Amino acid sequence: MTVTQEPAAARAAEAGDKVLSHLHPEGSWDVEAHPVPGRKDEIWRFTPLNRLKELHADAPFGTGGTARTWTAPDGVRVEEVSGEEAAALKGISGLVPNSRFTARILAEVDTALLVDVPADAEIAEPVMIDLTGADAGVNEAGRVVLRFGAHARAVVVLNHTGSAALAQVVEVAVGDGAQVTVVSLQDWADDAVHLSHHQAQVGRDASYKHVAISFGGDLVRMDSNVTYDGPGGEAELLGLYFADAGQHLEHRIFADHTAPRTKSNAIYKGALQGEGAHTVWIGNVLIRKVAEGIETYEENRNLVLTEGCRADSVPNLEIETGEIAGAGHASATARFDDQQLFYLRSRGISEEESRRLVVHGFFADLIRKIGVPALEERLQSTVESELERHLLEIR
């Protein structure tokens, strides 16, 4: 099937603007240009492919397993679109598929959920999109398109719950001067499988915050990518995850600095508990020759609460110009800080309460950075519920 490219993607292809990163293969709209990945492929070597239900390969996509509902403030259009309108939105984020599953979704899924925020709109309340799975036995594919006009201000929350086997592409187009926050919350049931690719293009002098929060699901793998459509754009990539026994939670970010004087800042924090809990964080920043005067930093911290867990953390910087304002990364994986526990216990605080305070402190600053008050209480409550499982194990 032939797919018509959106102008941004077409311009990149015509200019020969190839991604040079070793972690991101050259894109193509042709599904057959992307072989079915195997464990020997660098970008799939951490993922348990046998648990993906062939979503990464050629599993037929069914329908009806995941319901999509929403609450949108006045001034925001949220609608399921199809036909020519849905086709015209393909590549609106500058996306040219670099994996088989993304190419398949864009080739085979002829509808999209569109969230359209007009230029200059200032939307005070978050746009809430609920994606609720009802059957993890049905493989599905879905497209979500978030379009923000110039100088718009808005927050969109994608809330994933229930049982599902979902392959997903989320495209985000941020207009010049816009200030946008996109939150993707994966609070699935224990049997869910979620394979998703988020792609954003940030306009001139625009500000984009992307937040990935993963608690539930048997296996969740999310790619969160950003490019720039002009100088002065800023991207803040935040992530929070808590893996229990047997869960695989994988987050991969790619900040592709395609314009000068742009910024990216990534902070991901995770906790693990239970036998076989596995988290993966792959950070990658590509600074192209044209991207002079950029600033970037990426950080990943993991807190291991019990034996039998594994946290893989791999930050990367690929730099093609020396004319940058700053670039760095940090990664750490550790158990409870004995000094912190000793300090709290020496002041009469029980061991259980000390552990609770340490974990809450570990996540608290990141939760505040999200900047969505409606979510803060929910996230604190979820962290508390996850922590209670750990405390039950050590009692």
Describe the protein's architecture and organization.
Belongs to the iron-sulfur cluster assembly SufBD family. Pfam families: SUFBD_core (PF01458). This is Fe-S cluster assembly protein SufD. InterPro entries: Fe-S_cluster_assembly_SufBD (IPR055346), SUF_FeS_clus_asmbl_SufBD_core (IPR000825), SUF_FeS_clus_asmbl_SufBD_sf (IPR037284), SUF_FeS_clus_asmbl_SufD (IPR011542). The chain has 395 residues and is of the alpha/beta class. It folds into 2 domains: 7-335, no CATH class; 337-395, no CATH class. It has 6 helices and 16 strands. The protein has helices at residues 7-14, 83-88, 100-108, 338-345, 351-370, 373-394; strands at 66-71, 77-82, 111-117, 127-148, 153-174, 179-186, 193-202, 207-214, 219-228, 234-243, 248-257, 263-272, 278-287, 295-304, 310-319, 326-334. It has a 16-stranded mixed β-sheet that branches. It is globular. It starts with 6 loop residues before the first helix and ends with a helix. Residues 1-16 have low confidence and may be disordered.
Mean pLDDT: 89
In terms of DSSP E residues, the strand content is 35-45%
Rg calculated over all Cα atoms: 20 Å
Counting structural domains, the number is 2
Order of helices and strands: HEEHHEEEEEEEEEEEEEEHHH
Low-pLDDT runs: 1-16
What fraction, in percent, of the residue positions are helical?
A: 10-25%
Helix count, DSSP H or I runs of 4 or more residues = 6
Q: Indicate the overall shape.
A: globular
Distance between the termini: 58 Å
Please provide the count of β strands: 16
Content-based structural category: alpha/beta
The largest pleated sheet is described as: 16 strands, mixed
Pfam families: SUFBD_core
Protein name: Fe-S cluster assembly protein SufD
Organism: Nocardioides massiliensis
Domain SUF system FeS cluster assembly SufBD core: 139-362
